[in-house]
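Researcher: Here's the sequence for the chain we discussed earlier.
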Amino acid sequence: MSNGSGTKLSVFPKGFMEELSDGRMSLFDWIQMAGELRVDGLELYPLFLKQTDQQYLLKVKEAAYKQGLEIPMMCSSPDFTHPDPSFREREVDRMMRMIDVMAFLGPDSFRSCRVLSGQNRPGISREDGIVWTLEAISRLLPYAAEKRVHLVMENHYKDGFWTYPEFAWKSEVFLEIVGQIASPWFGINFDPSNAIVAGEEPLGLLRRVKHRVITMHASDRYLRAGYSLDDLKEHSLQGYSKALAHGVIGRGMNDYDAIFSELRDAGFQGWISIEDGVDGLDDLRESVRYLRMKIAEHLGGCP
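Model: Thanks. This is the structure I predict for it:
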């Protein structure tokens, strides 16, 4: 699926997420740093924004524009699997505010907000979690369509500020949810690394959803010394697996030639957002360089 504007490269500050969320780093400082990375845009996270009034948002948009950057993606993390209906209602309201934010910040050509299922809390049945997720997304879609903002559901592992992993972490549940949503304003944000974390084959999942992929997260995972793939099945339900580490894209476990070949076959021309920089900006620059090369090779972008 294409947004019609050609494949572009965005960046998400994985290595600065906590600093940007708690205010130790200014969003405007990050925008200036990102302007030196030779990317086309920024993916934001709700906690990066200290305000959501239009005066503040205009300053953010102008700062990005000054660096030659668009803001097409919001990495929002709604939590729709809480058993309390009032909690789920507040999450829908928060997502509507993020849709408003992206309607203002995003380029006319394309803008998106990520949607998730929610946390896999103990005691939540599969049936209830799916029903609650579908109810919330179905309520959001008419508003998103009115604001011309795409909702993209990610095959996700865990928001960094959550206690529990994603309810729809495993592809079986993820596919059951997305298979019941049909709207031109809904699609998939594919993350191959999250499939690895789930102990699954990224290409297998991609082949099943590639015609619905609107955006993509690009990252890579490495097995730490002394660990094997079997260790992924044994890590705690809380926190990240100790077996895996982030690293420079193209040097880890993901086969980006095969991934981009599948996306090319599906006619993908959407935004690809880099999730890297955990070990510093030099790694992030290397990931940008690698992805520029692969986009040019497989998807027809500029190297």
